[in-house]
Amino acid sequence: MRLKSGLKNSHCICRPAETICVRPAGFLKMTRYLIKKLNAFALLLFLVSISVFSVLFVLPGDPAQIMLGINATPETLANLRRELGLDQPFWTQYLTWMANLLTGKGSRSLNYDMPVYDLILSCMAVTGPMALMAMIFAVIISLPLGIYAARHQNRPADVTVMFFTQLGLATPEFWLGILLILLLSVNLGWFAAGGFPGWRADFWGSLKALLLPAFALGVIRASILTRLTRSSMLEVLREDYVRTAWAKGLRERTVIYVHALRNALIPVLTIMGLQLGQLLAGAIIIENVYYLPGLGRLVFNAIGQRDLPVVRDVVLFMAVAVVVVNFIVDLTYATVDPRIRLE
Amino acid sequence: MTSPLLEILDLSVHFHTPEGIVCAVDRVNIALNSGETIGLVGESGCGKSVTSLAVLGLISSPPGRIAGGSILFDGRNLLALEGDRLRRIRGREISMIFQEPMTSLNPVLPIGRQVAEPLMVHKGFTKKEALELAAEWLDQVKIPAVRRRLNDYPHQLSGGMRQRVMIAMAMVCGPKLLIADEPTTALDVTIQAQILSLMVGLKEKSGMALLLITHDLGVVAQMVSRVMVMYAGQIVEAGGVSDLFDRPFHPYTQGLLRSMPRLGDPGKKRKRLNEIAGSVPLLTERFIGCRFADRCPYTFDLCRLQAPELTDVREGQVARCWLIFQPEKRSLNA
Fold first, then answer.
1. Which helix H or strand E contains A268, and what residues bound it?
2. CATH assignment of A116-336?
3. B183 versus A139: which is more confidently predicted?
């Protein structure tokens, strides 16, 4: 009986009565889950690509005109437009773009005259590490503070933490960035005020150049995460199973970090995922404040210069990045909470 | 006779709420000898659970506060113990089983690990040894196919199974005292019987003392030797289980027993189930007289003027009632 049902379907049969639970084939379930996710992913990318393409298609401003300047003759303009394929109808242009992406040929930047792929890669070498460092800052600040505040609810320590997180929530990150530059670069001279030497040229210098912007981004995000961790912990600490853990005579750190924190982390993880995606896609302002050659600045400049291939591809890339991060968060959920099944 | 294993002396527990101070437990005395089973009975909100949580120092403060009394366990005053010394008693010498098996197990940890934890922290076993012992205990509480289930999570088990896991978890370190707070309330009747007989079996094997907290008099009758009845934070009657069931003295105990459904004698007309009129008073009130006065069928003037103390009714049975001194009032008002 047990064997039969195991073969018939891979779902876990958990009866309320005291029967034996048939374990599903984990591998099969995972594969099915991945296929489902990939389908959704493809659909999403299609929709993003269509909307990006449409928006840029109707956007005023002619790339050919911008490339050639205002003194160009109508003939040269028309020639360039033909060369760039800008005279083609919407669907032809869209399909050419897609075909190039799918065959790995990619697009070329009008402005830099190089593959967009290379541009994205070089910018991600700045934005990627910066986003990660910002998240690391956010996590190492927020988790201990949030847990500490929850353990000392309504006492002075908690009130102080809450005050500073409120302050953090109200602070725009570019302003914090500027303050940090004024204090640590201009007055104390510990950091460069901006710029990025490049990983190959100067590894430690590059790391140092990302430290301040990552900190500015991280502190602001830590404010939200601290509050979230605190409220989530407070809720979990009231749960029956935490009382059970105390009753078992476990050490405080086991109760807090093993029994309570894992349960409290689930909502926190969601927000962390959203924040990381957002950081990868949208550190435009801070990259400008610190003069960093990141993805935000790339797309910012490309929009100004009507470098349409760059804008399109970068936006698409950002969408992919956000989806991938969320996918990783989904996988993490299932690791943290066994009740969440990958279905 | 040596001193009792657990002696709760004049324990009072207050909760500070926005509505005022709630005296959830008022000068409660309980003595429990090694190997003995006693029942603590009363309706919801009467202070049974608070009393038991106070023993393990699990009353969260604020809002809770131990307002007075002492809890002696094996010669030590638990209320005076701090931090690590109290922690080493929890789960090792005194264990507790809670009412809700659904929420009392951690949903994100495998059951094997949860059962093994006390062994690692109290007895210094390695994880592997502890899991091995945990498996033996889970087997003892009759969880089928234990080896495969060690890595199962609570949501994969039924309520009865989870309560078995809770029992195994409470028993692994061989406690001298097990406090079971409504262990079967949340379970189906058939499962209740299984869990109770399991607990009786384990108790007999290990020789531990058992403090059984319940509102179910049927459970009490099956399992305990002595019963204490609590009402509104106070013990109102205590005695041997047969005395208390056959000759209850306090009107509240009588009411409780009458409100139990039972299969009628054949031939007798079926009667409506008795209930105790009214409801438990708010514990924020200041009581002058007897706390049960408003619901008692025999209330007379003295009941509202002065609070009665626990007084001997007969050998081994005490009650908190003025009727002890004026037994004629019972027939007058009835």
1. helix A261-282
2. 1.10.3720.10
3. A139
